[in-house]
Amino acid sequence: MRCSREAKIGEVPTIQADRIRSALTATEFALRGRRCGLFVLDAGSVRLIEGARETKVDAPCLVWLPAGNPARLKLSAGTPGFSLRLTETVIGRAMPAGGLSGHIRSTIGGRVLAFNTAGTRSFDRLRSLFDEIEAELSGAPPGSDMAVQTLVSLALIHIWRAAAPKIERSVALPSRIVQDFLGLVELHLTQHWTVGQYAEALGISRDRLNTVVRRAIGRSPHSHIQARLMDETKTLLLQSDLPMAQIAYRLGFNDAAYFNRFFQRHEDVPPGKYRRLQRPTGGDDDRRASYAAWP
């Protein structure tokens, strides 16, 4: 028997939390598509079926299955525990930043089987995190999206810990630094992080970040951040009817006057004039529709 809570985008579940209660008959879970699955079982046993391969695992145990790995789990009668099934989008947003990001990505990119041996505290922490995620999903209180993202981020750390990782102290590859930097920019663009904050999140110095980003994309981290802000600004100017103050707010500018100066510094004209010059003059029917124009 299971008690389920979930969050959705439209009709598509993005995260599903199931509390698995001890049942008199076997219970089966299926993992399909681009969804990851975490199963923490307190007692009993489970048969993990992946194509022609079948693995029997005795509880207490943790099973992590990455996206794109179709699998079925058959829980024996009397097997309690809980499960979280999440889309790759949820995982991407919740991925911890900093020096451990690469290690965690590597671990959860494959199957994880871990056992609750003496001294393993990650299982207890995962149970507590599941309780909190379940509570956020059931009531959907204000800020629940951000709370769930934070809780999932902590859960990923404890899955990594339960896998008993061996951390090798090595210098991060430039390609990894650039990839992680570009991803962080997309996540924190409207928070106006400084280059120093990005470097700190990546666990490297500001000078090293400047060097590897310049070599890879031909411009400095600061220039890339500014260019992305301009890209988003132009999209909102040309594909929405939002007033300047609202566009400024959406992009993280608390002062509309400063937003105007920022835009003019890069484009040589104020944003209002840029909109008038660039947009079609055939009327509303000629204007391009955009999700950015939605409330």
From TrEMBL:
<keyword id="KW-0804">Transcription</keyword>
<keyword id="KW-0238">DNA-binding</keyword>
<feature type="domain" description="HTH araC/xylS-type">
    <location>
        <begin position="179"/>
        <end position="277"/>
    </location>
</feature>
<feature type="region of interest" description="Disordered">
    <location>
        <begin position="271"/>
        <end position="295"/>
    </location>
</feature>
<dbReference type="InterPro" id="IPR018060">
    <property type="entry name" value="HTH_AraC"/>
</dbReference>
<protein>
    <submittedName>
        <fullName>Helix-turn-helix domain-containing protein</fullName>
    </submittedName>
</protein>
<dbReference type="Pfam" id="PF12833">
    <property type="entry name" value="HTH_18"/>
</dbReference>
<dbReference type="GO" id="GO:0003700">
    <property type="term" value="F:DNA-binding transcription factor activity"/>
</dbReference>
<keyword id="KW-0805">Transcription regulation</keyword>
<dbReference type="GO" id="GO:0043565">
    <property type="term" value="F:sequence-specific DNA binding"/>
</dbReference>
<dbReference type="InterPro" id="IPR009057">
    <property type="entry name" value="Homeodomain-like_sf"/>
</dbReference>
